[in-house]
Write a structure and sequence with these properties.
Blueprint: H1 2-10, H2 22-32, H3 37-49, H4 61-68, H5 77-87, H6 91-97, H7 105-118, H8 126-147
Helix pairs in contact: 3-4
């Protein structure tokens, strides 16, 4: 465990993608915030007393240990929400690390939006369709131009 603590001191700014799973990520966040497992448990109790989280969001130091040691790989979303609040990170990141969200979701949403846009094509006039095709050709030609690299000189 000491080796991980040294890594944290050397590089406190790390992207969530650098961690292989939830266990590594929450361990890093806890150490980065200089919290013990008992500290996290106490922070959760404080949030509960303030009414920020519900009773289901309370987390024990033993459960934190189970998450960090990979005995629990997918804690409930409520527990993850508590950890996100305590560690002051975006809920979506910690949910993604636990496997609840798909990192490819934005790409899928873009594809759906594009498909819906294409459904409007039959309602277009012939001139509008031709304008759209011309624009697509223009965009493709610009892409090919920049893939070759900028002109020198």
């Amino acid at each position: 465990m000491r080796k991980k603590a040294k890594e944290i001191k050397q590089s406190p700014l790390r992207s969530p993608e650098e961690f292989r799973d939830l266990a590594d990520y929450v361990y890093f966040l806890r150490k980065l915030r200089h919290l013990s497992m008992r500290d996290v448990e106490e922070e959760a109790k404080k949030l509960y007393k303030k009414g920020v989280i519900k009773k289901e969001g309370l987390i024990s130091y033993a459960y934190i240990s189970n998450i960090e040691s990979r005995r629990v790989s997918r804690p409930s979303p409520v527990i993850l929400g508590t950890l996100a609040l305590i560690y002051n990170v975006d809920h979506e990141i910690i949910f993604e690390k636990a496997g609840y969200l798909d990192s490819k979701r934005p790409k899928i949403e873009e594809d759906v939006a594009f498909t819906l846009m294409l459904k409007e094509v039959p309602k277009m006039t012939d001139d509008e369709k031709q304008s759209l095709l011309d624009y697509i050709d223009f965009v493709k030609s610009r892409r090919k131009k920049y893939e070759k690299g900028p002109k020198k000189g």
